[in-house]
Design goal:
Layout (H helix, E strand, L loop, with lengths): L2 H15 L2 E3 H10 L7 H11 L2 E4 L2 E4 L10 H16 L8 E5 L6 H15 L7 E4 L17 H8 L9 H11 L7 E5 L9 E4 L10 H4 L1 E2 L1 H7 L8 E2 L3 H4 L4 E4 L7 H13 L1 E2 L7 E2 L3 E6 L1 H9 L4 H4 L2 E5 L6 H14 L6 E2 L3 H13 L10 H8 L9 H10 L10 H15 L3 E2 L1 H14 L5 H30 L3 H20 L4 E2 L6 E2 L3 H8 L9 H17 L10 H24 L5 H18 L3 H15 L2
Parallel strand pairs: 4-13, 4-14, 7-10, 10-13, 15-16
Antiparallel strand pairs: 1-6, 2-3, 5-6, 8-9, 11-12, 17-18
Helix pairs in contact: 3-4, 14-15, 14-18, 15-19, 15-20, 18-19, 19-20, 20-24, 20-25, 20-26, 21-23, 21-24, 24-26, 25-26
The structure holds adenosine-5'-triphosphate and magnesium ion.
């Protein structure tokens, strides 16, 4: 669809969704679709829930966030369950300001933006539809029209609780325009839109010390006082503060904790009673989600100030920590690069992963558990198998530091370093070493890192570099084998045939000549030695493998190359050991002969075709691995 067609389509859709009717019509609609009367908090919760929830291992994964926020499921689950879900049930938390606390560039703004854009879309769906008194600058809930003394009866008939009082403006309009006939008041369907200031607002204080409350609650329109005769005529008031405009939806409060406490007091009544004071009017009821965000140090100094106590108890703090999984961090970088102007640059395979290894290490706390170091912890967190540890251990590790993820290197820093390396060197292709180098250089200029942290981080650069060396060697060695998986499988089958014959004290049959042969001890040992299995331990190891094979057979599963981790490692190492000399010589020779040249070209072609390199990064990789193997 062309863009013009899409715009047209959107407009048609908007026309189609429009609804307008009297309050009496609205009540009929309510009978049919009672959910349209839900509170703002309930709508946010249902929006998240309706996008889908996946459950795995007792953990919930909200699909609503999955395209934009990676690796922070636990924090999101807590936020949705403890705040939105409870608030949707009209529990007290609804009356508190939601304060997201987390380290810089940890995704707080991303989260808030997702909620805003999400609500805009959701209000266009059947489930998320919102109705309001037509012509009201605050899109007031039509049910406020129901007089207090009839609300119990309304509840009995409709099962809907009405909270909040009709605003002074609509009270007056009811009398003047509708002669008090509630049933005639015109109601319309509204669509949330931040641009049009409908149901979505952002408040950013201009001067935190002398902020005018009118920006939040609206102000008197002096030009119309003469017309209406008095300041207390609601028609002489402009209900155009951010709180007014965000009514029924949500308001983001930026830099909230930087505001003067006197200013924040105005928020007290809103959060406590669901209403706020504007001008010379009775309290105005509001139904909206207020979200603010802050970092840890700002929050600490806020609560340290005694004057803030009252406010403090009306805030619900939810942590938004950094992601702690290497693979998810890689996805974050990929997303940020796609969104940036770097997307045309070739980023060699593993470059982002190696950067992510570094970053995650800076965020992890030293484990207390026996036999585990930071690197193992990092792998376990990422869901990798680490011999001797299971998922129970991962939970225990997480419990050691409930505050983990609130410090360390942020994703924006890494992206900035990548782009600075690209721009400075005018590269069109960047590899893992370029990235690490740039991150390292940047640490010296990074203002908010202490000297101790800088030293620790330098060590992590070295660790990440070592990880890269292992990855790079493996990659090249694999590319040297014509068909790596095939060769590994052949070697393993061969090994298993021999092991089987050995354990059953059988002979093997030569597939070509049909001759009987004794098991090939030399072959078996050459593989077992790769993972340090001694002469004494070989029998037990071979038997263990046979047991594993029969266990697989019983379950009807196929035993293959990946079924036994140590065996896989042994096979891989054996393949590489056989190759080592040829890889070493071919990659490091300055003047390759014809057959070496052919091999190099083959390997480069394979790296490009199958492993995502381009010719520059593939050549760099080969040269680097050559130098590593010759050390
Ligand atoms: N867990 C995450 N998943 C996906 N992207 C993330 C995550 N954390 C950070 N980002 C990305 O990092 C960048 C910075 O995030 P964002 O601006 O949302 O952070 P913030 O917490 O609001 O930071 P600040 O404290 O500086 O305001 C964004 O591009 C965001 O998409
Ligand atoms: Mg932000």
């Amino acid at each position: 669809m062309s863009i013009l067609r899409k715009i047209e389509h959107f407009r048609e859709e908007e026309e189609r969704l429009k609804w307008e009717g009297t309050f009496a019509d609205y009540l009929n609609l309510l009978k049919e679709k009672p959910w349209i009367a839900q509170t703002a908090h309930s709508r946010v919760y249902n929006m998240i829930k309706d996008a889908g929830v996946e459950e795995a291992n007792g953990k919930k994964e909200y699909q609503f966030f999955k395209d934009q926020l990676f690796g922070v499921n636990e924090a999101l689950e807590k936020l949705v369950e403890e705040y939105f879900h409870s608030a949707a049930k009209r529990l007290d938390v609804r009356k508190r300001i939601l304060l997201l606390m987390g380290p810089v560039s940890g995704g707080k703004s991303t989260l808030v933006t997702m909620l805003k854009r999400g609500l805009e879309q959701y209000s266009r769906t059947d489930k998320g539809a919102v109705y309001a008194i037509k012509g009201c600058p605050m899109h007031e809930d039509p049910l406020h029209l129901i007089p207090n003394h009839l609300r119990n009866e309304f509840y009995e008939e409709y099962g809907i609780k009405v909270e909040g009082n009709l605003s002074p403006l609509n009270m007056m309009r009811l009398e003047e325009e509708y002669s008090g006939r509630i049933e005639d008041v015109i109601v319309e369907r509204i669509f949330f839109s931040e641009d049009k200031r409908t149901g979505i607002g952002t408040f950013s204080p201009s001067d935190p010390k002398s902020q005018d409350i009118a920006d939040l609650t609206g102000s008197i329109d002096f030009s119309t006082i003469a017309e209406y005769g008095s300041e207390s005529d609601p028609r002489a008031y402009r209900f155009d503060g951010e709180l007014n405009k965000a009514n029924r939806g949500m308001m983001e409060f930026q830099e909230m904790l930087k505001c003067d406490e006197k200013f924040l007091w105005h928020l007290l009544s809103l959060t406590q009673e669901g209403n706020f004071k504007a001008g010379r009017f009775a309290l105005i009821s509001a139904d909206e989600l207020i979200v603010a965000h802050t970092n840890e140090s700002e929050y600490r100094s806020f609560i340290a100030n005694k004057k803030n106590e009252a406010l403090h108890s009306r805030i619900i703090v939810m942590k938004v920590p950094y992601n702690l999984k290497v693979s998810e961090e890689e996805r974050i970088y990929q997303k940020m690069i796609q969104e940036s102007d770097l997307s045309h640059v070739h980023i060699a395979p593993h470059a982002l992963k190696v950067a992510a290894i570094f970053t995650i290490l800076t965020r992890l706390q030293q484990p207390k558990k026996q036999g585990i170091d930071l690197l193992k912890k990092m792998r376990l967190y990422d869901g990798e198998n680490v011999e001797g540890f299971n998922s129970q251990d991962v939970e225990e590790l997480k419990q050691e530091y409930p505050d983990e993820g609130m410090s360390g290197i942020d994703p924006r820093y890494v992206i900035n370093r990548i782009s600075s390396a690209i721009i400075r060197k005018q590269l069109t292709s960047i590899n893992a070493l370029d990235v690490l180098r740039s991150i390292k250089e940047g640490l010296n200029e990074h203002a908010s890192i202490t000297k101790e942290d800088r030293e620790r981080y330098m060590d992590f650069i070295a660790v990440a570099r070592k990880e890269y060396d292992t990855i790079a060697k493996k990659e090249v060695q694999k590319a040297f084998v014509y068909s790596y998986d095939e060769s590994a499988k052949t070697l393993m089958d061969n090994y298993l045939d021999n092991v089987e014959a050995y354990c059953n004290q059988n002979k093997l049959r030569d597939p070509l000549t049909g001759e009987e042969m004794t098991p090939d001890e030399k072959l078996m040992r050459s593989i077992e030695e790769q993972i340090g299995i001694s002469e004494n331990a070989k029998k037990a190891f071979r038997e263990e493998i046979l047991i594993r094979i029969s266990a697989y057979a019983r379950k009807g599963k196929k035993f293959d190359y990946n079924s036994h981790e140590r065996l896989r490692e042994a096979i891989q190492k054996k393949l590489f050991a056989d190759l080592k000399d040829i890889v070493k010589i071919t990659t490091s020779t300055k003047t390759p002969d014809e057959s070496q040249l052919k091999k190099i070209n083959e390997v480069i072609a394979r790296l490009v075709d199958e492993h995502g390199y381009n010719s520059v990064s593939a050549n760099e990789l080969l040269r680097y691995v050559g130098s590593l193997l010759n050390r």
